[in-house]
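As promised in the previous annual report, we have extended the structural survey to additional targets. Below is the entry for Acyl-CoA thioesterase.
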Amino acid sequence: MSGPVGQPVIRMTAMPADTNAYGDIFGGWLMALMDSGAGLAASLLCRGRAVTIAMDGMQFHQPVAVGDEVSVYAEVTATGSSSIKIAVEAWRRHRHEETRVKVTEAQFTFVAIDDNGRPRPVHG
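The corresponding structure token record, generated without further manual editing, is:
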């Protein structure tokens, strides 16, 4: 398997508080990390506020365990006049090993907004 696509944007350790009722890392925790990472990439590109308007194609490939290091990578794949599409991947590494494994991926769409919450140009 090849390595992550995009730039590293977040790295976290999965903790017991991030688990679901069965003791597995909650998928919503991963989604929140990925949304935060995509938001960092979107805000940097548009030099201001950007909001999530869609998340598509999330697929969970592998589980994440308590104590795993989770790294999120983001790559801008398209820009419109006010929108930004970002491919995001989350990878895990067991804390005592070097091997990384992709656990999930998704496409996020953001819109650059002004101080009044209205769409604004991505570049400008």
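The radius of gyration is 15 Å. The CA atoms of residues 8 and 14 lie 17 Å apart. These points will be discussed at the next consortium meeting with the crystallography subgroup.
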